[in-house]
């Protein structure tokens, strides 16, 4: 297995680093109680102008036709710089539209997604359907050439500033599980939608989005009715390589090391040993990320490699932050310090995008045949 990048890919990395210097103060990867939406939108538009939101899109859809390695490099460096996370629109949504959308939908949405002018959030989780998306209850009832949507989504990132929601809803019978789901594109300024904040442990914001008789044209359903599960699954399969960039962890480790050095404990043998152990585990996460990238490049099923990577990476994020709090003294536990913030934020990473328990269950079933 070749874990290296080509000279052309490394040259692209140099371009990315030069670009990031201009946006180094955006600070949109984390929120920490700040409203960073405006800065993040500016970054997305700038990326769109360079064609970097559509690096691996097929050329026939206006993309660059490049390897997914270019996307990995871009979002890995964005994570280290703490600038922004990958947007859902040009990634998951656009690739699902290419695979399952109509010509009219592609014409309507792809150009603005490619240019960073249209922002999507994901309407998946619900109060009683967090990790078990087959239990979704938000209902879309067909009335002529519209659906009427009622229900609620929760823990939705960026719903308060997105333009559209990629909504997973139930169009089949109540007990139909994954066989009765459909995907709708819903404008978030539609009558009957209410967006309410859910404060998070790290000072950021998630959202509850309620639907009260929201009318959505049937023309904005993606894929066939009751076949939304296939749409969602195929979209996730091509985006796993950018969802938890390992350089985010490298930046975490560098910040904790700097804090421990400032506290005068970096040369303590116990601290040095722990930091060495964490550095080795970081190298393991790097290897898992590149193995996952290889699977995506080859077009192979990547659910298990993605679960290994997310599990190892998010647990390591907690352990890096825990070491900072454990060895950093009383100052490291003061609210608002970088080390204390990393500890709070790292807990959320083991929940979003599939909990640690879900990742372990997936590995157990698909890798080891456990039931």
UniProtKB/TrEMBL annotation:
Co-factor(s): FAD
The protein's matches in InterPro entries, at most eight in alphabetical order, are given as:
Acyl-CoA_Oxase/DH_mid-dom (IPR006091), Acyl-CoA_Oxase/DH_mid-dom_sf (IPR046373), AcylCo_DH-like_C (IPR036250), AcylCo_DH/oxidase_C (IPR009075), AcylCoA_DH/ox_N (IPR013786), AcylCoA_DH/ox_N_sf (IPR037069), AcylCoA_DH/oxidase_NM_dom_sf (IPR009100), Mycobact_Acyl-CoA_DH (IPR052161)
Enumerate the spans annotated as Acyl-CoA oxidase/dehydrogenase middle domain: 121-214
Please state every residue range assigned to the domain named Acyl-CoA dehydrogenase/oxidase N-terminal.
Answer: 6-116
Molecular function terms in GO for this entry? Answer: flavin adenine dinucleotide binding; oxidoreductase activity, acting on the CH-CH group of donors
Every Acyl-CoA dehydrogenase/oxidase C-terminal domain range: 226-366
Q: Name one GO cellular component term.
A: plasma membrane
Write the record's keywords in alphabetical order, separated by commas.
Answer: FAD, Flavoprotein, Oxidoreductase
Gene3D superfamilies documented for this protein: Acyl-CoA dehydrogenase/oxidase, N-terminal domain, Butyryl-CoA Dehydrogenase, subunit A, domain 2, Butyryl-CoA Dehydrogenase, subunit A, domain 3
By sequence similarity, the record places it as follows: Belongs to the acyl-CoA dehydrogenase family.
What name goes with this protein? Acyl-CoA dehydrogenase
């Amino acid at each position: 297995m070749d874990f290296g990048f080509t000279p052309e890919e490394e040259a692209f990395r140099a371009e990315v680093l030069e670009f990031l210097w201009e946006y180094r103060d955006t600070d949109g990867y984390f929120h920490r109680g700040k409203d960073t939406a405006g800065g993040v939108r500016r970054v997305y538009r700038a990326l769109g102008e360079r064609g970097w939101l559509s690096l691996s899109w097929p050329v026939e859809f206006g993309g660059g036709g490049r390897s997914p390695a270019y996307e990995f490099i871009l979002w890995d460096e964005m994570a280290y710089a703490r600038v922004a996370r990958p947007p859902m629109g040009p990634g998951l949504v656009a690739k699902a539209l290419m695979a399952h959308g109509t010509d009219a939908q592609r014409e309507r949405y792809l150009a603005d997604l490619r240019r960073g002018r249209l922002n999507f959030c994901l309407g998946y989780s619900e109060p009683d359907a967090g990790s078990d998306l087959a239990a979704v209850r938000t209902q879309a009832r067909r009335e002529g050439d519209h659906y009427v949507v009622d229900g609620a989504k929760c823990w939705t990132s960026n719903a308060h500033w997105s333009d559209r929601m990629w909504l997973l809803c139930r169009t089949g019978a109540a007990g139909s599980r994954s066989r009765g789901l459909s995907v709708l594109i819903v404008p978030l300024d539609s009558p009957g939608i209410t967006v309410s904040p859910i404060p998070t442990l790290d000072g950021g914001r998630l959202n509850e989005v309620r639907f009260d008789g929201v009318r959505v044209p049937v023309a904005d359903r993606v894929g066939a009715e009751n076949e939304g599960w296939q749409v969602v699954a195929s979209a996730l399969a091509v985006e796993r390589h950018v969802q938890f960039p390992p350089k985010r962890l490298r930046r975490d480790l560098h910040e904790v090391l700097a804090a421990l050095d400032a506290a005068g404990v970096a040369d303590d043998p116990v601290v040095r040993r722990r930091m060495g152990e964490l550095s080795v585990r970081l190298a393991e996460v790097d290897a898992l990320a590149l193995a996952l990238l290889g699977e995506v490049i080859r077009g192979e099923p990547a659910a298990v490699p993605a679960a290994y990577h997310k599990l190892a990476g998010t647990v390591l994020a907690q352990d890096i932050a825990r070491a900072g709090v454990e060895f950093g003294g009383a100052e490291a536990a003061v609210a608002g310090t970088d080390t204390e913030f990393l500890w709070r934020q790292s807990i959320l990473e083991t929940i979003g995008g599939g909990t640690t328990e879900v990742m372990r269950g997936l590995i157990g079933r698909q890798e080891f045949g456990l039931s």
